[in-house]
Design brief:
Radius of gyration: 17 Å
Low-confidence stretches: 1-12
CATH class of one domain: Alpha Beta
Shape: globular
Mean pLDDT: 87
Distance between the termini: 35 Å
Helix content: 25-40%
CATH architecture of one domain: 3-Layer(aba) Sandwich
Largest sheet: 5 strands, parallel
Structural class: alpha/beta
Length: 198
C-alpha cells in the first residue's frame, strides 16, 4: 500500500504533475529521455529524479540511490512529497516538486500506478501518461534483457494490465513501433499540457 507523506493537498495549483507509468519493456525511460532532451533549458518544464532504494548502477532510470536506512530518515524528515513501496523497493518524489507545481511548472516523473491516488492528493493536479506496447513487443524486449525466461515473461504479462484503473486524467501512448515516433507523441503531449498552464 503506498503511503503519502505530503503535508496536504493544494486546492488549486498553477502547474501540473505528470506521472509516466507503464509495464516493464514499454520504454518509459527512453521516451522520457527523448522528451527531456527536447525541453532542456525550458523554464516551465522539469523532469525530476526519484529517490529509490536501488543501486545507482542497477540500470533503468536515472535516480537518487539511497539505502533503506537513509530513505527512512529522509522520509521521516519530510523530504518526500509522496513515497511508496513496490517490488521490494522504496520510491520517493522529492518534496520540492510541490513548490515547482505551485509556481506553475510542469513536472514530469516516472511513477507507479499503485501510487497515483496519493500523488494526486499531494499535488492536486495530475495527468497520467500511460506508456504501452503490444504483449508481443513487451515479451521480446524483456526477453532481450536476459533476466527471465520467455515462459516466465509471458505468464507475467498475462497477469498484468496495460490500463490505468481509477478516475484519472490519462493519456496513452503506444510504443510498439519506432521509438522516435512515440517520443514525438510524448513531446506533443507535453506541449499541449503547457498550453493548459498558460
Amino acid at each position: 500500500m503506498p503511503e503519502q507523506s505530503a503535508t496536504g493537498a493544494t486546492d488549486a495549483t498553477a502547474g501540473m504533475m505528470m506521472i509516466v507509468v507503464g509495464p516493464s519493456g514499454a520504454g518509459k525511460d527512453s521516451l522520457m529521455a527523448i522528451a527531456a532532451r527536447h525541453f532542456a533549458g525550458h523554464d516551465k518544464v522539469h523532469f525530476t529524479r526519484r529517490a529509490i532504494t536501488r543501486p545507482h548502477d542497477a540500470g533503468g532510470e536515472d535516480h537518487e540511490a539511497l539505502s533503506d536506512t537513509v530513505f527512512a530518515e529522509r522520509h521521516a524528515a519530510g523530504d518526500f512529497a509522496v513515497s511508496w513501496q513496490a517490488h521490494g523497493l522504496s520510491y520517493g518524489i522529492p518534496a520540492e516538486m510541490l513548490d515547482r507545481v505551485a509556481r506553475g511548472q510542469l513536472v514530469i516523473a516516472n511513477g507507479s500506478r499503485s501510487a497515483l491516488a496519493d500523488i494526486r492528493t499531494a499535488f492536486g493536479r495530475l495527468r497520467v501518461v500511460n506508456i504501452t506496447a503490444s504483449p508481443e513487443v513487451l515479451a521480446a524486449r524483456l526477453e532481450a534483457r536476459g533476466r527471465e525466461s520467455r515462459d516466465d515473461i509471458l505468464r507475467r504479462l498475462d497477469r498484468s494490465s496495460l490500463t490505468v484503473a481509477g478516475d484519472f486524467d490519462v493519456v496513452t501512448i503506444d510504443n510498439s513501433g519506432a521509438l522516435e515516433d512515440a517520443g514525438q507523441a510524448l513531446i506533443a503531449m507535453l506541449e499541449l499540457a503547457l498550453t493548459d498552464l498558460r
